[in-house]
Amino acid sequence: MILSRRHLPSLSGLMALEAVERLGTATAAARELALTPGAVSRALQEVEGQLGVTLLIRDRQRLRLTPAAREYVAEARRALGLLSQAGLRLRAGGGGESLTLAILPAFGMHWLAPRLRGFRAREPGIALTLATRLRPFDMEAEGFDAAIHYGRADWPGAEHLLLMEEEVLPVCAPGAFALPLAGPAAVLDLPLLQIESRTGDWGRWFAGQGMAGLRPGGMLFDQFATMHQAAVHGLGVALLPTFLIAEDLAAGRLVPVWGGPVRAAGSYWLVWPKGVPPRPAMAAFRGWIGGEVAGGR
After folding, report:
1. 120 phi and psi, to 5 degrees?
2. What is the mean pLDDT of residues 130-134?
3. Which residue, of 87, 119, 148, is where some domain finishes?
4. Which domain holds residue 32?
5. Are residues 282 and 158 in the same domain?
6. Residue 2 half-sphere exposure, CB side, CA atoms within 13 Å?
7. Do strands 237-241 and 158-172 pair parallel, antiparallel, or not at all (unpaired)?
8. How far is residue 144's CA from residue 190's CA, in Å, rounded to a whole number?
């Protein structure tokens, strides 16, 4: 049951309040919402009047929310996210079944995308919406049915299905450095490339070569795609997942620097909210991807 309308402020007022909480001024909020500062100020006054509570402290050119208003905005932001995702699902599904999935860029492109044609053939009535997320988030609050997670089976409040254990290999462009090396210690003399969210990967690789306690630095990247291209163009040695570079190794665009693939610290998982009955589209996707994983093993 929906509560009385007097407890539900206008959508424009909620969006203005949420933007001001993030940005700090009516001018910045107006720029983001494509409104005038005056229109934002009127929307804020309207939402205060509708709720009957003071939400904002006017401090010269800035607007500060009261502590109670900040808590309210946190809840309102969750609701706005759900409305946005519901709209995406409705448009994508055209009134039929839909599935909204958060993916990791490299894994989504190189492992999941080549397989999705099989899912579309099996479930032609389900419309897929894919969005990139690099770190764990609140799936229910943002309206996602499921997400791809890298690491351990530790996503809070989620069920986990193992998709793939990751192996990594140090690679570089052919001719970029004098190979073969005398041993793994020589890798330390080369420029190393690494992902900013996984800066311990090189230390684990060296430990696997009998050189524990090292934490070498190197050029940082926020995604595998850019680090991969940096390695292809000779900027350094990258420790890359084997599923990402299989074609490059076969074509000779990249070559191993030392040794073979080694087990990485994490694995790839499909995760979905625990204790929430899955919608039919999610149940179908989970069954399909479970079959893909079992077939691959």
Report:
1. -65, -35
2. 90
3. 87
4. 5-87
5. yes
6. 5
7. antiparallel
8. 42
